[in-house]
Design brief:
CATH topology: Farnesyl Diphosphate Synthase
Distance between the termini: 26 Å
Shape: globular
Largest sheet: 2 strands, antiparallel
Radius of gyration: 20 Å
Number of strands: 2
Number of domains: 1
CATH class: Mainly Alpha
Order of helices and strands: EEHHHHHHHHHHHHHHHHH
Structural class: mainly alpha
Strand order of the largest sheet: 1-2
CATH architecture: Orthogonal Bundle
Length: 353
């Protein structure tokens, strides 16, 4: 079998989260790598645009921005814009500008998040605020937001500006909401889902939806793209929250247990709390009331989470959202790109195993 790179690879059939066979390539490309290969020409143009548009005569701006943006990451959100634009048959250059805008919005939120969270690692490196300070990080984040809006305006699509500007506002609201409920162990699960939809899924949804706008698709196609991105984003965040209790540092690009140390009530913690005994509930409440949390407490928290299968239940919900993301793609042309996007939905979940 020939892979996207043209190299010969041996396929292995394994079971996907929905019980259907998935072709995996030992030592070969996963769906993110396959998408990258399929979109390599456009991704190269996006990377060039990212590099060009984060330049400034004020040297701190490109230095700090490139520390984060240049660290790479998966570029998953801009890749979604490129992939969905191609799937819909878009012809033009606006998808390059919008993919870049999406990456700048994401990068700006990461710069701000690292300050709020007091993170020690971002993409396996010290966060920018540890090197340049909080003030510079906030301002460079603002610079990237401004650049993203310039890119949107260049497309001339008012609807695109509406979608991405609204997404930026909702992301900020989600982050403030999460900050407001730090340590609230009684946080209703519906509120938790509202938070992750705002702070993560909204940008995934916008990244896919703008492709339908610039391709002048039907309203039904636009809504389907929104659903694909939104459900994929929810699955992605649920898995990230599960990995914070069950993953490895190299999988996350940050320390395992950061959510716990920061007092963030994510779904694994919430499920363990609500399923726990009175003594366990008392422990969770006292632990979150404290100013800080230590390694011994993390170990005990993990034992409670494992006892009540809270990670497994979180991943089960992630699988459900991944299935919804795949279903949203059914109305579009069945080709290699759609297959890769469907496999991406599964990969977002299976990376936790």
């Amino acid at each position: 079998m020939l892979g996207a790179s043209g190299l010969s690879i041996t396929a292995e059939i394994v079971e996907k989260p929905d019980g259907k066979p998935l072709v995996q390539h030992p030592g070969g490309p996963n769906p993110v790598e396959r998408l990258s290969a399929l979109l390599h020409v456009d991704m190269a143009r996006v990377n060039e645009t990212i590099e060009a548009r984060m330049q400034s005569p004020i040297g701190t701006i490109p230095d700090l921005a490139s520390h984060l943006v240049g660290a790479g990451g998966k570029r998953l959100r801009p890749m979604i814009t490129l992939a969905t634009s191609s799937l819909l048959g878009y012809r033009g250059d606006h998808h390059i500008l919008l993919a870049t805008a999406v990456e700048f919005i994401h990068s700006a939120t990461l710069l701000h998040d690292d300050i709020v969270d007091g993170s020690d690692l971002r993409r396996g490196k010290p966060p920018a605020n540890r090197l340049w300070g909080n003030s510079a990080s906030v301002l460079v984040g603002d610079f990237l937001f401004a650049r993203s809006f310039s890119l949107m305006v260049e497309t001339g699509h008012l609807r695109v500006l509406d979608i991405l500007s609204r997404a930026s506002s909702i992301i900020a609201e989600g982050e403030v909401h999460q900050l407001a409920v730090i340590g609230d162990i009684d946080l209703p699960i519906d509120d938790y889902m509202t938070i992750i939809e705002a702070k993560t899924a909204e940008l995934f949804a916008a990244a896919a939806r703008v492709s339908a706008v610039i391709t002048k698709c039907s309203e039904a196609d636009e809504k389907a793209m929104d659903q694909f991105g939104r459900s994929l984003g929810l699955a992605f965040q649920l898995v990230d929250d599960a990995l914070d209790y069950s993953g490895q540092k190299q999988e996350l690009g940050k320390r395992v247990g950061d959510d716990f140390r920061e007092g963030k009530v994510t779904l694994p913690m919430s499920l363990a709390y609500h399923a726990g005994s009175s003594a366990e509930k008392d422990w969770w409440e006292q632990m979150l009331d404290a100013d800080s949390r230590n390694a011994a407490q993390l170990t005990l928290a993990n034992s409670y989470i494992e006892r009540h299968d809270a990670v497994g239940k979180t991943l089960s919900l992630a699988k459900s959202h991944a299935a919804q993301a795949k279903a949203a793609l059914d109305r579009f042309e069945d080709n290699e790109l759609r297959t890769c996007l469907r496999d991406l939905c599964d990969f977002v979940v299976t990376r936790a195993y």
